[in-house]
Amino acid sequence: MLVKLASLALLLVGLAPAVAAPAGPAAAARVATPQSRIAQAPSEVVSIEGVTEYRLANGLKLLLVPDPSIDTITVHITYLVGSRNEGYGEAGMAHLLEHMLFRGTPRYPNVKGEFLKHGARFNGTTSYDRTNYFETFTADDKNLEWALDIEADRMRNARVSRKDLDAEMTVVRNEFESGENSPYAVLRERVASAAYVWHNYGRAIIGARSDIENVPIERLQAFYREFYQPDNAVLIVSGRFDQSTALRLVQKHFGPLPRPTRALRKTYTVEPTQDGERTVTLRRVGDAPLVSVLYHLPPGTHADYAAVDVLVAMLNHVPSGRLHKALVETGKASYVFGSERQQREAGYGYFGAGLPPGGSLDEARDVLLATLEDVGRNRPSDEEVERARTRLLNDFELTIADSRQLTGTLSEYAAIGDWRMLYLHRDRLRKVTADDVQRVAAHYLKASNRTVGLFIPTKELDRADIPAVPDVAAALKDYKGSGMVAQGEAFDPTPANIEARTIRRTLPGGLKLALLPKRTRGHTVVAQISLRWGTQQSKAGRSAACGAASAMLVRGTQKKTREQIRNEFDRLKANVGIGAEGGSIETVRASLPDVLRQVAEVLREPSFPESEFEQFRRAAITSIDTQRSDPGALAGIAISRHLNPYPPGHWLYNMTLEERAEKLKDLSLEDVKRCYTDLVGASNGEVAVVGDFDPDEVSRLLGQLLGDWKSPSPYSRIAHPFQDVSAINEAILTPDKANAVYRAGMNLKIRDDSPDFPALLLGNYLLGGGSDSRLLRRVREQEGLSYSVGSYVSADSLDQRGAFGVYAIYAPQNRARVEALIMEELRKALDQGFGAEEVENAKRGLLQARKVARTQDDALASRLASYLFVGRTFDWDAQLERRVAALTPAEVQAALRRYLDPAKLSVVKAGDFPKVAGADQPAPAN
Fold first, then answer.
1. C-alpha–C-alpha distance, residues 766 and 900, integer Å
2. Do the beta carbons of residue 500 and residue 675 sit within 8 Å?
3. CB-count burial class (<10 Å; 0-12, 13-18, 19+) for 903
4. Which of 288, 489, 678, 906 lies 20 to 30 Å from 882 when distance is taken between CA atoms?
């Protein structure tokens, strides 16, 4: 359920400037605000499990989530308005307005530039029931006041102007077009549209192209003025802060905003009970068939929803879920999917399967429907329900323990009725029985309540009445929660402190350890494992076999099946991704020893079951088939093959899609087993652990589990030297794709310890690596041609090899203009350089962003492990950042000019270009 919440908020990125509302009345109201309102402190409403709600006199809800264990603060504001609130001709207005709020205010004309200067991670998202904005930054009272001031200012004073709308509309339209490239996304939109006759949940959140292009500015301004008000917002502050200071600052900046006199326009459309199966057929260019089905479900606050949550978790899990067993294990599908939308009003569940080309849709559809609707006829076992419920409750516990995840999750529950529903829903889950699951399945998963891709007539109607939205206040009356979450320590993420706290050891078998113990919220701990084995000679021609061997490890051991392995990790509250070259672990202190034991079993005792191998092969080939007409995949493969021209058989050779498919088809299970037995071991590798754990216990345990696991053959690092390749400019034809892709790159002869690297790093940040970079401002903000555009630079730590690249998406008819603008900005940076203020702002932003990155325990563990391999400490980071801080504009320009040459930039683009008059004829997609 908590994993689902990430997708519940359709992440429609809000890196877009803002909207111009009439500033006069808002400003006048602010000036006229009585001083008593400004001074009046927020009143406490309720406190549950470390989350406290306050209310301001103007109606603003404030949630404080203190977490001293991290060195950041997140300010997250949710407006209780989404696509559900849009009227006729306004489809996509909520999302468009989200973009516009990044266009600035009179006081903050460059909002994204402000975030950049403070090194903040920021975004905005739109969903059916809400729109939110959030920024995470280094914990500091001044930073907190700055963030609150920005959010309070753009709540009422955002520029919602015709000029900005004209520029932003084309960016949003490009985002719309990028979604049109995915048959999966389009099919879901069409099915939802057929399932909902009247309610806005049946419309895509991003909206209709015609509405996006033609919405009158006056309607957008009216939408903003009505809904972006304190009495329709929930402000969340989480992280390391002083609560009294936070309350004072919130009152200072939000308190003066007047409580509006208008009554909020409420939605009242209720989707009528569906009275028969509906069907949709989608015909578009593509390669892999899909079958799906949607069922209407109750509102997310309804008491039935806990059982619905367990039902979906029981059906969609891989590999123990019923859909996987019925469709994938029998070979009728390559993969399955299933999710539910927990909404303010009656939402839906969506299930389906992806088939290999030529697979029988009729057969897969029949099995899909029979599997889903059988739960209502035949009671599931208590054990099956318990496993699903345990996974959901584990997700809740890990989310509540992570204040960053908790912040976003509280926002979602506030949108569906009340943030406290998070805890009440969790408590309801604890009580769900197999009888409850069968009851809700029988009521909602039935033929008359489903929408599928084929029409099947029925003689008898069996309707599902969807209950009304319950009285949330009554459900939450006297609710107290289940206790407090363990708090962590205040940890300073400076390189010096990280070094002072890190313990490094080498096990007798050769495995290197980096251990960083610290108290964390919820006793969480993360680990990163890297195993290094083989040589270029011993691995030659074996990339497909070794890749399959890596994927097969979690599909069965000598002691457990794939399902039992997954159930064990679920029981231990662990998120684990593991393969032959290592992986990552996220769990809690009490479970870490058992998790490490299970990981060691997976690594050392694989069984390579033949049935699982066939499932893996089918899924992998189907995944390849889905990329055959995808512009992003084709352009990415083409540019990578050109810049890295290794011969076939070399471990670093980048195969075409056809070669990958053929290798998989020809691959035998014996080849896979031989890769493992010939090469894989732990004589060379690194393990980094960060979080709440006992370093001595972990060292002993790792020594017992992996210390004697010798690699069966020698290891030597495969060099990846600089290769000087000639520039190319190629186009790939991908018919019927509304979105085109641009990929460009060149190889650089540089290492990351070069004296030029800091200047090159900062120069790229200014050009296209930052959220307020030259490319983003020109191509996206000014011209409105691309939703996503930027550049990157990299340099190896051991080989004299780096890379520079540029990427963009755009409508095919804008191809020439996008390419011209990218080259113009690149040449301008090389010829004219950057201004002193521009460079200073970028330095602050880059250094703050690096500091914020070190507050992420998983990223910190990954960095510690990689430093063990290259022989570094975090003193290297400190030195790099001192060099960045000392850079001058002249040094940045000189470094760019030494390494970047537009004439050597290789370009590959993919899209439906022949539709554009005068375009040259690209090569067809392979």
1. 14
2. no
3. exposed
4. 489
Same domain as 428, residue 302: yes
Q: For the segment 835-859, what is each residue's pLDDT rounded down to a tens digit?
A: 999 999 999 999 999 999 999 999 9
Give the pLDDT of residue 459.
56
Query: Which residue segment(s) compose the domain that 606 sits in?
Result: 495-706
Longest Cα pair distance anywhere in the chain, in angstroms? 79
> Can you read off the two tokens belonging to residue 299?
């509102």
3-class DSSP state for residue 4?
helix
Q: Say if residue 37 is exposed, middle or buried (CB neighbours under 10 Å; 0-12, 13-18, 19+).
A: middle
Q: Find out whether the peptide bond into 106 is cis, omega within 30 degrees of 0.
A: no
Which are the contacts of 478, defined by CB distance < 8 A and separation ≥ 6?
none
> 333-392 pLDDT, tens per residue?
999 999 999 999 999 999 999 988 888 899 999 999 999 999 999 999 999 999 999 999
Kindly provide the b/e burial profile for residues 244-274, where b requires at least 16 CB atoms within 10 angstroms of the residue's own CB: eebbbbbbebbbbbbebeeeeeeeeeebeeb
Sign of the Cα pseudo-torsion (643, 625, 811, 189, in order): negative
Q: How far apart are CA 660 and CA 663, in angstroms?
A: 5
Asked whether the beta carbons of 324 and 371 are under 8 A apart, the reply is no
Residue corresponding to tokens 């407090």:
484
181 and 289 assigned to the same domain: no
Q: What pTM was estimated for this model as a whole?
A: 0.84
Rounded distance, CA 184 to CA 260, Å?
Answer: 42
Q: What is the CATH number of the domain that holds 506?
A: 3.30.830.10
What is the number of alpha carbons within 13 Å of residue 373 lying toward its C-beta? Answer: 16
As for how many domains the chain has, the answer is 4
Decide if 554 contacts 565 (C-beta within 8 A).
Answer: yes
Q: How far is CA 175 from CA 9, 172, 366, 722, in A?
A: 16, 5, 35, 36
As a whole number of angstroms, the distance between CA 760 and CA 463 comes to: 64
Span 68-97, average pLDDT = 91
